[in-house]
Amino acid sequence: MNYLRVTVEGLIGRITLARPEKKNALNREMAEELGTALFALSESPARVVAIDADGPDFCAGADLAALNAMLDSPRQEHLDDAKALGHVFHTIRRMGKPVVAVVRGRAFAGGAGLATACDIVLAHEGARFAYPEVTLGFVPAMVMTMLRRSVGEKQAFDLVSTGRILTADEARSIGLVSRVFADKEFDRLVEATLKQLAESPPKAMAATKGLFYQLDMMPFLDGITTGIVANADARATSEFREGMQRFNSRKQGKQ
User: Which domain holds residue 208?
Assistant: First the structure.
């Protein structure tokens, strides 16, 4: 069963969650499709990947009916089920291309986790975000690794321990969302942002994203040292030389 649509238009790849009758709730099959789609787009000509959704909501979280059906399954089956979504989060982080969540409506639980896993979150002014797992006796387990990095310890624990719902502006104010766009400008500004990302030199973008997340695991001085090497390596690329040529041409044109 296909729960997604995957398209490439020019340099922009798009994964659309296509299960609106279930509020795009995530089950194992859908998570596996997401992992496959992300890998395919990582190998495609696309330079940026957008994840959006059909219907009024981005993603309501895990498919609770599917979870209920496997309550008495062996532990290994539960591990494999969780691993499918964990693989999606890991793939997004490892990709050399920016992955952008385009969020309308609700992004709750695993849906909020999917958005948080992306490099950039563009939210409609009416979007809502929440991590309500604890209210169901569940744990937002994998999501917390990313959430703590995005919003800080105190804000993250507040969200996962209360399950409270954030408006798009509240989510932006604590660092969960990158930008919030008004309804009348949403589509235009989303496409403009994707186009800007797609026009960046791909090797420089991949190096920037790789170093950005590599720094998570490094002490301060090690991060600076690694940055020195990455800085010098970037200067040796053809992309940097071309960028310098464009800069010099603009500078000479102003004289």
Answer: 202-254
Same domain as 209, residue 116: no
Verify that 193 and 214 share a domain, yes or no: no
User: Between the CA atoms of 9, 10, 14 and 18, what dihedral angle is there, to the nearest 10 degrees?
Assistant: 10
Question: Rounded distance, CA 237 to CA 119, Å?
Answer: 24
**Structural domain total, the chain:** 2
Q: Are residues 133 and 186 in the same domain?
A: yes
Averaged pLDDT score across all residues of the chain: 92
Q: Which of 162, 159, 144, 150 is nearest to 118 (CA)?
A: 150
Query: Do 155 and 80 belong together in one domain?
Result: yes
Judgement on whether residues 144 and 162 belong to the same structural domain of the protein: yes
Domain shared by 11 and 47, yes or no: yes
CA nearest 19: which of 28, 11, 30, 9? 30
Residues belonging to the active site:
133
Q: What DSSP string runs through 98-119?
A: -EEEEE-SEEETHHHHHHHHSS
Give the count of beta carbons closer than 10 Å to the beta carbon of residue 162: 13
Give the residue, 228 or 108, on which the prediction is more confident: 108
Q: Output the pTM of the full model.
A: 0.90
Q: If we measure between CA atoms, which residue out of 90, 133, 92 comes closest to residue 109?
A: 133
The DSSP bridge pattern shows strands 120-124 and 179-181 to be: parallel
